[in-house]
Amino acid sequence: MFDVVYLCFAAAAWALVAYKAVAWFRDRRNTDLGLACLMTGGVATVFLFSAPSLYRGFDRLVGVANLAMVFLYSSVMVFAAGALVLLLRWTTGEGEAARARARSRARAVVAAVAFLWAVAVTGFAVGRPDAVEHPRDFSTAYADAPGVMVFLVLYLAIFGASLAGLGTLCPRYAARVGASWLARGLRVLAAGCWLGLLYCACKVIGFVLSWTGHPAPWLSNGVAPLSASVAAILVLVGFSLPAAGPRAAAWRRLRRLTPLWRTVTAQAPEVTMDGSRWTGRWPFADLEWRANRQMAEIRDVQRGLRRHVESDAIDIVLERARAVSLDDRQLAAVAEAAALRRGLENRAVGHVPDHGADSVVVAEGRQAARLSSEYEHLALVADVYRSPLIETVLTELRQRSATAHS
Is 229 helix (H, G, I), strand (E, B) or coil? Predict the structure, then answer.
């Protein structure tokens, strides 16, 4: 079971590494993205070597018991070094001189981590007392081996310091970038860091209890690995949210906007651009572009329908909608949907009222402060486009029009 779980997480993590690597190759000057790619690769390797069968298989291949643990913890050190470099980059200020200082300090930090880790690996090499595999209980099995303790204590010290720094700084940086998927990712990353500190604390407490004659394997071999696994998952989610979040949001918008877009562009095909009727095989390609095009084409249709909508149509819709106690957002969506349907009806029969509407776009949708608000408004229009309330209002407008022409 552990093999399946860890290997599945490793596969997902390596897929994320590949995605970030492609993005970084397109923008080599984005050092933060490169560091994120490196740190994600460290987490992916941790999951890979955490699979007990792969752990034992690797050791059989190289002929050294528990050497896989060195590779596993070395991957953690890659993550820790990347986190420390990120901290330096985010806290040294602006300007070329500050960036130069950050590069110099980053080299010093990486050198220090490399030196300390070399000492730790040396402790493992000279202090490993037996050749028994311990993929699940390494820290408790060697609690009385001084060399291995040097290895483990240095590992926890470096890892814990990087987690504490990154976990503290990420929320501050998230507050600076405002409400965005990047901010959400940073906060999830911070949560992963703090949970990782719980893992470090459990290990240290486990050591102390073993040295005082009160071993607690449930803490070192149960709670600690569980918290580390969940922390690693949160770290991966934090790294993936800035890229995956906008795409997921665009996919949801497409699902809600597409029925309305198909309806209105079917009656006004002249507004569609080449390529906007997407025919690609991969459903998640160009999601942002497709969502933008659908919204723009719906708006183009609306602008062309103003003269086909009675000038008092929106006022009538709002009066009827208020009677059913809708909130302001719903009122705006219902009014816009009714005006759009009425305009398409009149245009289909060639009817142009004596007094056309100044606009069929309600102010809330037209003056949205952010693009996401504009999307949400149009999505609400799509949701209510064929609602019974709209049918009732359109029936009244048709009757008024028939009476006026009789």
Answer: helix
